[in-house]
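Quick one, tokens below. Sequence please?
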């Protein structure tokens, strides 16, 4: 059985400032480095044979992968474009308070889950990526990652990606429970590709929201 660990990158200044990141590039903050190191500790505790490490090409993911690789003794392989974060277009760089004002979100909807998803689905956010596209990328990425495993017992692949990408990928494989992974959190999937993927374990998930 193949195992794939999807790791959310460590925090950046944009994360810590509550800003929508998307395609924006930022280095890891000091806390983000610590989160990457804790992710490596969690992966090491899994009892699995992590044979390959890759990431999205975005800076925060590559830096997180580099810290994980140092602790686990793995070289970071070429990045996969499919692992990139969702493109949020005109919403990138905004806090949610700023987003609510710019798109005049009704007071009753402010703070509720999925507000930005609904704005994008309604075609109100220029240059934003449809959620169906992100889910499709997630499925393609899992197929690519499964092809990177080796024929050894309990072998697995680590892929450093992004929060919305991971959420959409879990939705695409039919994982029904809402999952919010904190920066540096890890979701381990198990499967063989043909019969589908299941969530095997989760590290770094706060209360569901």
């Amino acid at each position: 059985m193949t195992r794939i660990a999807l790791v959310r990158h460590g925090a950046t200044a944009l994360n810590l400032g509550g800003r929508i990141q998307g395609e924006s590039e930022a280095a890891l903050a000091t806390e983000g480095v610590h989160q990457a190191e804790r992710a490596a500790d969690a992966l090491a505790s899994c009892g699995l044979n992590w044979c390959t490490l890759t990431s999205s090409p975005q800076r925060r993911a590559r830096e997180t992968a580099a810290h994980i690789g140092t602790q686990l003794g793995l070289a970071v392989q070429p990045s996969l474009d499919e692992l990139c974060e969702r493109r949020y277009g005109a919403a990138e760089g905004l806090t949610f308070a700023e987003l609510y004002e710019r798109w005049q979100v009704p007071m009753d909807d402010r703070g509720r889950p999925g507000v930005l998803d609904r704005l994008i689905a309604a075609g109100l956010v220029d240059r934003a990526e449809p959620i169906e596209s992100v889910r499709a990328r997630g499925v393609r990425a899992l197929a690519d990652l499964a092809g990177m495993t080796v024929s050894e017992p309990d072998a697995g692949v680590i892929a450093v990606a992004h929060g919305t990408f991971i959420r959409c990928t879990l939705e695409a494989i039919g994982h029904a429970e809402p999952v919010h992974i904190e920066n540096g959190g890890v979701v381990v999937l198990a499967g063989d590709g043909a019969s589908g993927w299941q969530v095997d374990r989760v590290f770094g998930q706060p209360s569901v929201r």
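The longest strand covers residues 2-8. The two ends are 31 Å apart (CA to CA).
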